[in-house]
Amino acid sequence: MRVGVLTGGGDCPGLNAVIRAVVRKGVSEYGYEFVGFRDGWRGPLENITCELGIPQVRGILPRGGTILGSSRTNPFKIENGVERIKENLAANGVDALVAIGGEDTLGVATKLSELDVKVVGVPKTIDNDLGATDFTFGFDTAVNIATEAIDRLHTTAESHHRIMVVEVMGRHAGWIALHAGLAGGANVILIPERPFDMDKVVEYVESRFRTNYSPIVVVAEGAVPKEGTHSLQSDERDAFGHVRLGGIGDMVAKELEKRTGKEARAVVLGHVQRGGTPTAFDRWLATRFGLHAIEAVHDGDFGMMVALRGTDIVRVPLTDATKELKLVTPELYAEAEVFFG
Predict the structure, then answer these.
(1) Fewest CB atoms less than 10 Å from the CB: which of 36, 151, 242, 310?
(2) Where is the Phosphofructokinase domain (predicted)?
(3) Was 273 annotated as part of a binding site?
(4) How far is CA 295 from CA 24, 129, 310, in A?
(5) How many Å separate Cα 180 from the centre of its chain?
(6) CATH topology match: 2-137+278-321 vs 139-275
(7) pLDDT tens for residues 219-254?
């Protein structure tokens, strides 16, 4: 059997660990051949391939990013995109495809599976918002990076008696903000699931100053005030229709400075969260996903995605992977609210 592998969407730590595990087990246990498709769905769409075997995956376990490259190409938005993918898979003798990606990449995989393309999915998203799996790799790395940044900002904030606003990733879900904010001792955490009251944020900040310590506000990039969606988004949209977010951290900092009279600074962590070497947990999870993904291929269990449930790796239908987002619940947010102010 000849198996294609691709990585789509935003890069994140752990992608190379998945690729390595898929290839190592596929070659050593099943005798499969592999072909890498470059730059997400653009690879099979434009027939951009690379050699993929055990020599190519040596040493990549601790590396961030993806050796296959990535993109946000959507073949369903391109004329004859599906037909071109099918033709290129056949031309390369590809019998099955392992697609590693998030909501958009797996959404394409789901549609292709319904059109008789043999696909197995592996969940990948920094935001940890895919509903069918307890955790996605890359998330733990992002949380650790954000937590370290918050730890460092506490000291500079207290030295200058400033408000520090830390903007982290999280378009629809506030998992990074919640985990990193709680771990880093933030005084306020703002997430997309809970539109915030700026008056209440000001109250928390002023309460913190009364303790002779300086406040840290952690805000997810998709957070919005109760008054309505902030207007600091770009008009640019990607191939999947997503608006490019940005600016909420700066907006919150300026508003807090105006209302409290205290100096405020915004720090946008941005792509720093998704770059660099993965944590031990992400290497472990990504490796297990890869091993179970190629096992699903071997079993002929296509149209499925591997997922973490508790400590077990299970298979779920690709349709479940993108059916609904996993959001922060009111109960979990209430746990963090105990430490606000």
Answers:
(1) 310
(2) 2-297
(3) yes
(4) 12, 25, 20
(5) 15
(6) yes
(7) 999 999 987 544 444 455 545 454 545 589 999 999
